[in-house]
Amino acid sequence: xxxxxxxxxxxxxxxxxxxxxxxxxxxxxxxxxxxxxxxxxxxxxxxxxxxxxxxxxxxxxxxxxxxxxxxxxxxxxxxxxxxxxxxxxxxxxxxxxxxxxxxxxxxxxxxxxxxxxxxxxxxxxxxxxxxxxxxxxxxxxxxxxxxxxxxxxxxxxxxxxxxxxxxxxxxxxxxxxxxxxxxxxxxxxxxxxxxxxxxxxxxxxxxxxxxxxxxxxxxxxxxxxx
Length: 226
Fold this sequence. Notes:
By secondary structure, this protein is an alpha/beta fold. Helices cover 28% and strands 20% of the residues. It has 2 domains: 178 residues, Alpha/beta knot, CATH 3.40.1280.10; 40 residues. The chain contains 7 helices and 9 strands, in the order E-H-H-E-E-E-H-E-H-E-H-E-H-E-E-H. Helix 3 runs parallel beside helix 5.
């Protein structure tokens, strides 16, 4: 089973998505598990404060390094089963750090992460996390830095959810049929279902004839051109 550990201030928001549809079913079937660590649980002040003003000036607030580090350490202490199977599962977990300047996350990266037993996702907020947290975390476990698209988000929860989704759907049996993983089949961006004809404002919108022929070679050729 692949275990995801999200380091986040907003576990409820994440769990709503990760409990639904394909991801929720994968959790119920124990293909994956999801655990959360809140940096706020590891602060040493009475206000539960996890952010401070940035050195050198600038807008907004920056998340403090040590609450994040301690949250990751707690995730690392969660018992992990011994290495087994074909021997290709790395013994160590991997830490994922999100940054708009990181490597663009791809399907190949999802395949690589699917081979780990524990994937720890660090979800920053505000103007980011004190850079020293990343330097310390690199000493604890391998760290990969990814960007999910070119946009900048309010926090890394949305990129983390996208990564969990992308990795989970690549696990054997998660989609029911392995052929459902898009790049492993001849797919088209244009898909159709019943009814055959939709009438809207006196105009008919029809399913392409080739899709109704049952001629698989012609259908695959049509899809390849889309």
